Amino acid sequence: MSKPDKKQTILDTALTLFVSQGFYATSTASIAKQAGVATGTLFHHFPSKDELMNHLFLTIKQEFANEIQAQIKDSGDLKQDAEHLWCSAIQWAMDNPLKQEFFQQYSMSPSIAIEIREQAMNGILGFMGALLQQGQAQGLLAAYPLALMQDNCHGQYLAATRFFLDNPQTWQDKSHRQASFALFWNAMAKS
Q1: What is the DSSP annotation of 40-108?
Q2: Which domains does the chain have, with CATH numbers?
Q3: Which of 99, 111, 144 is nearest to 91 (CA)?
Q4: Do 109 and 180 touch, CB atoms closer than 8 A?
Q5: Cβ–Cβ < 8 Å for 86, 37
Q6: Are the C-beta atoms of 157 and 89 separated by less than 8 Å?
Q7: What residues have CB less than 8 Å from 165, skipping those under 6 apart?
Q8: If you compute the radius of gyration of the chain from its CA atoms, what whole number of angstroms results?
Q9: What is this structure's pTM?
Q10: Which residues pair with 189 in a beta bridge?
Q11: pLDDT (tens digit, 9 = 90+) per residue, 118-132?
C-alpha cells in the first residue's frame, strides 16, 4: 500500500471511529490499529489527534464545497438559485450520511478549533457569504451582520439534514423539500 493510500485509510478509519465513538473516546492507537498501520505511520501523517481531526474536517468541508459550487446556477433569480443550492447541499448529506454525521457532531464542537471553523466558513465556504451579500445588495435578504447570517444558515442546514437523515422518506416528498427551503429562506428574507 502506498503512502497516500495509508493516509486515506487513516482518514477513513478516523471518520468512522470519531462518528461511532466520539473524538475523546477514540485513541490514535485505536485508529492506527483499525486502519492496519503502525502508530508511527499515523503520527508521520498527523502529528496529533487534533491535527488529524482538523485535516479530516477541512477535507470533508472542501469536498462538500466543491460539490455545492459545482451546482451553482446563475439564472438571474437568486431565490430560485438558492433553492437549488439548498437542495443540492441536503442531497450531498443524504448521499454522504457518515460525513454528514461527522458534521452534525463536530461543526459546533469545541473539538474543532474556532480558527478551523472560521477557515471552513470564510475560506472554503466563502462563496456562500458572497451569495448572501448579493442577496442583500439586491434587497432580497435582510441587512443582518454577515457572520451571523452565515452561522444561522449553517445551523439551519444542520437542523434540516438531521431531520432528513432521521426521516429519509421525507426527502422524497416535494412538500417537505419545499418547506425546508421556505424555513431557510424566510429566516433571512427582507420583510
Answers
A1: HHHHHH-SSHHHHHHHHHHHHHHHHHHHHHHT----S-HHHHHHHHHHHHHHHHHH-HHHHHHHHHHTT
A2: 1-47 (1.10.10.60), 49-186 (1.10.357.10)
A3: 99
A4: no
A5: no
A6: yes
A7: 93, 94, 97, 100, 101, 104
A8: 18
A9: 0.91
A10: 141
A11: 899 888 998 899 999
